[in-house]
Structure formats: C-alpha cells, structure tokens
What we know:
Two copies of one chain form a homodimer.
Chain A: H1 3-6, H2 18-22, E1 26-29, E2 32-37, E3 42-43, E4 46-47, H3 49-63, E5 68-76, E6 83-94, E7 99-108, E8 114-125, E9 134-136, E10 169-173, E11 190-197, H4 205-211, H5 218-221, E12 226-227, E13 230-237, E14 246-251, E15 254-256, E16 259-267, E17 273-282, E18 284-285
Antiparallel strand pairs in A: 1-2, 2-6, 3-4, 5-8, 5-13, 6-7, 7-8, 10-11, 11-14, 12-18, 13-17, 14-16, 15-16, 16-17
Helix pairs in contact in A: 3-4
Amino acid sequence: MSDAASAAAARALIGDSEFDRDTAVFRREEGVYDLELSAGWTILGAVNGGYLLAVLGRALGDALPHPDPFTISAHYLTASRPGKAVVRTRTVRTGRTLSTGQASLFQYDEEGDEVERIRVLASYGDLAGLPDDVRTTATPPPIPPLEQCFGPEDGPDPLQGGSAIAGRLMLKLDPATLGWALGQPSGKGEMRAWFGLADGRDADPLSLLLAVDALPPTAFEMGLQGWVPTVELTVHVRQRPAPGPLRVSISTRNLAGGFLEEDAEVWDSADRLVAQSRQLARVRLG
Amino acid sequence: MSDAASAAAARALIGDSEFDRDTAVFRREEGVYDLELSAGWTILGAVNGGYLLAVLGRALGDALPHPDPFTISAHYLTASRPGKAVVRTRTVRTGRTLSTGQASLFQYDEEGDEVERIRVLASYGDLAGLPDDVRTTATPPPIPPLEQCFGPEDGPDPLQGGSAIAGRLMLKLDPATLGWALGQPSGKGEMRAWFGLADGRDADPLSLLLAVDALPPTAFEMGLQGWVPTVELTVHVRQRPAPGPLRVSISTRNLAGGFLEEDAEVWDSADRLVAQSRQLARVRLG
C-alpha cells in the first residue's frame, strides 16, 4: 500500500491526490500537452487502459469548452510504457450543449520520433448543467457489503502479484466472482467489485474512466488465462458521482473468433448509474 | 415499395442492390471519396445514422488493408442531408490482424465550403480469417415468427409515415413492442424486429451497420415522443452474417439528464450474435 494510502484517514482531495498528480498534463502550446505516464498504474508492466483514457480525457477537458466527457471512444494502437508522453488534441466542433474533440497520445521511439499509442474521439458537455430527470430499469449490481469482499491484500497469494496498480486502488471483489483466483472459475463472464482510490480521493468523471477498466478481466472467470488487450473502449459518463465508494460490475456475454466484448456499469453511493462502458478485446491465450 | 422491392422474387445480390448503389463511393484521390447521399434512407427528412455509418464504413474498407469493420465509433456532428458528400479517410495504423483508420463525412454549405457531418474511428480486420470458437451466454431475442410481426405497410396509419426508408427495408416489429404505435407504449425501453433489405439482398458486415440503427427508437416504447438524435454510435461486427433475415433487439435501461443509451444486438438466421452496438442519444421532447 502506498504512503498516501496509509494516510487514508486524512482522505486525499480531488485535485490533490495520486490520481490527479499522475494524470497531470502540461500545456506546451495550444492543444498540445506534455506528461509523464506513471509506473504506478501498471499491471505486469502494461499501463492500465483506463488510466490512459483518463489522461487523454483530462487533456480534452482542458482543450474543449465543456468540462466533462459524455462519451469517449478510444482505439488502442500500440502498448504504452511508463515515461514521457505527449497528447495532441484537436477541436472538431463546438456547440452550445456539446463539443467534440479528438486526441492522440504519443510516446517516443529510440530516435525520439513520436509513436502513436491511442487515438480518441469524444463529445464533452457539462454534467452539472443537466436536468435531473431519471427513468431507469437498471438496478445496482448484487454485491455483498464491502467488508465481505476481498482485495489483493487479503490473500496469501496476491491476486494481482507484481501489479503496481493494486497499491493505487481500493478494489474489493465480490467472493461470488472470485473463483478464478482459487483455480475454480465459475465459467460465467462476470466480475463485481467495490472500487475507490487507495488514498481516499472521491470519484469524479475522470476517475470513472479509470473505474470501468480497473477490474481483472471477465475472461479469468470464463476460465481463460493470458492477456486480454483492449482494441477499443467507449465510455458514457452519465452523472457526476456522489462521494463514497463505487460499485463496478463487468460482464462478457459473447466470445467469438478470438474477440470478446466487456461491458461495465459503475454505480455510485446514491444508487445512480454514473457510467456505462463497452470494450472490444482480443483473447490471447497464455 | 420501390421497384426493386416489387421484384424481390428475384432477390438482389450483394454488390447489385439498392443498398450497394446508395452506399457507393468513388475514389477521387488516395483516401478521398465522392458520393451522393440518397434520399431513399431518410426519416422525415433526416438521413438515417446507420446508413451514413455504412457509407463511411465502405470508404474505410476501401482505404484500409483489411476489409471488415470490427469496431467502428461515430460521433455525429451536424445533420446530414440527401445530396453530394465527400469522405476523407486517414490510415492511423496498419497491423497484421487489425488496421485502424479515421474518416470524416463532409457536405457543402451555400458557399461550397465543406461542413463536417460525422467523424469516425474504426479498427478493421478480416472476419473470414477468424477461428470459429464461440463461447456465449447470449441468447437470441424472443420474437414471434416473421409472419406474426408487423411492418409499416400492415397498418392503416403507416408506422413511419413520410419516411422513405420504410420502402428500402423489410422491417417487421414484434407486436409485444408495438404498443407505442397504438398509443399504448409499454413503458419498457425495448424494441424487437425482423430486419432485411426490401429488395432481398442478404446481409453483410456493411449492412449490419445499418441494421443496428434501423428500428424506431426505444424512446417511443418508453412513452416519449419527438426526436432522439444520436450523439455517438459504436458498432462491433462479430461475425459474417448467414443469408436470411436478421433479428434485431434494441434496449434502453437508463434515461437521465436528457440522454439515454440504446443497445442493439443483431442475430443471424444461424442463431449467431453477429453485431452489438451502443449509442448515446439526446432526448428532445416533441
């Protein structure tokens, strides 16, 4: 657990937390942002796709006239590594309620040339400006209370051994979807967890982009091992989350031809569906 | 019903059908395609978003080294009109299994300047080259046999009066999701239909991009009236569809703050889930 996490009694604030420091972008010129991808959000050396999306989302939030990602679609091109990066943004259209932008994250090859890692299209708006009408048939995921769920730190064999990101997250998995960690996957493509940031920072629209891609892959509960790299991930942010831990439910219904979809829902402490996402991922059997 | 449709006994072939002619793109120079948006795919004057996506998908299929859209994300910027248009594509990355491209559709303002209508990011592959492993928990939508379902031509008051697209499609709606047409919406955000092209052309990956956005909006069955413009639509094409009519199921679980998601599933005659999509749409009450 990181230093900040041990100090969780004094909860980190939005704007002054590990997540905020590690997603910081520095405007070099209009629409161009320098940054450092942190090694703190890696799993076995690979930088987490949700963290990367949050970095891109933050740059776009600065570049566009609206603050919040309403829908953001990312295509993952090459594997990102911790270290220097640059985000280049473009404003596509500016409207009253929504503005649309494009962004690419680049890193550098040995000659110092830019290599594109991810390209994103997004439409931004202002969540605070929306009417509060809700009509929903969606219900929160059935997950036991937080203290009956299990995280990497609860097992003799860490669930995500060698994964720096485990120290950045408060992730407590529903025991009903933990069979894979005990060598007994259920065969169902479902995973549920309580989610927060280890230093106690509350959720905001940017951290929702992280939350949708932070659980172990559904493929593990389907009995598959190995790597499940994301091809494309689209997130809809539907509401500004209330303070307190989130519940995240992910599911896969269809694996075919070596590809699967993974859907995520994120619920806040006020029982509101605050984000939905879907990704297309490749199954690379280990 | 169009001339071609009346001749449906002699089914139109892929490559020689209304859909193929109306999505034709003509390469002006590398990556740039001229075309004419047909008035045949409009609903009350608005060009159908799935038809537009198929046009963009066709241009990208020509520009990229791989033929089939595996995942394609479109952000809709301004309203398209029937008439002249140009698609400009860019190859983002070329890999062995997947290549990624970007495309924009433009039309012309009164001065002849280009106005961007839609921007798209997509990853293409070769559906024919995929292994045929399938693990799925998804089941086909519960829909009565085709002859027990109803289309615009079956009612005294056409379901989509004034809509040219009705003549291009074979669309037969499940009576259980037709309450809205009789002034008695169920309140549930679900719609199911048999789907085909009126001239009998079989489905292919491009026409799946049309199929996901061809049903009346779920909002109608939720008791809402008015316009539901798409902000963003992402489609995953999972399999090459078998010949025969498709079953399309769309659903909305959550309307909040004036926005809703609409998920679509498309099943082929071999009971395979051939496409999944999700869109974020705005609700503009009439």
